[in-house]
Fold:
Amino acid sequence: ESFQDNLFDYIFKTILIGDSGVGKSNLLSRFVWDKFRHDSKPTIGVEFAYSNTQIDEKLIKTQIWDTAGQERFRAFTSSYYRGALGALLVYDITQRPTFNNLAKWLMEIRDYGDSDMVIALVGNKIDLGHSREVSREEGQSFAEKEGLCFMETSALENLNVGEAFLELITQIYKVTS
Ligand code: GDP
Ligand code: MG
Structure:
């Protein structure tokens, strides 16, 4: 859509965080363009996309930043975090190391991000249930312990993807308005 920025009531910056390969870029492209890629396309530099949402008759424009493979080297610059009101912290339910690394990502978010940033934890790839290494309950209890919203998704099968982003946007709206 070609709304001008001044037609929006709110503009939110959000970021995608988590290990390489967990499906961050595909969650973004599923949510914004309803597209899925079977290959992983590491690009150079940061990319972002926009999505428009309406809550309580307010028009919200959400800018979603995606990493371009820097997570492999943990070489995020502070500009990635700067001004971000929310983060989707993603792990892969079929790769336990990506779940074990969540504590490190939370430390980084809390070091570089604003203290009141909303964080939604997302366990992705639930279409691969036969290879599951992290139970739903484990994800849920980690989220509760850390005070995060929690959802399991599949970017491939488009399960809960819109819901996860909308939950994040709604929580940001609640703390912002
Ligand atoms: P990123 O490195 O976190 O951005 O992850 P990508 O979005 O590039 O995805 C990494 C790989 O996982 C790619 O081969 C994707 O096709 C695959 N992938 C992403 N999401 C899903 C999903 O929900 N289910 C399945 N089965 N594969 C996925
Ligand atoms: Mg990516």
Notes: The two ends are 24 Å apart (CA to CA).
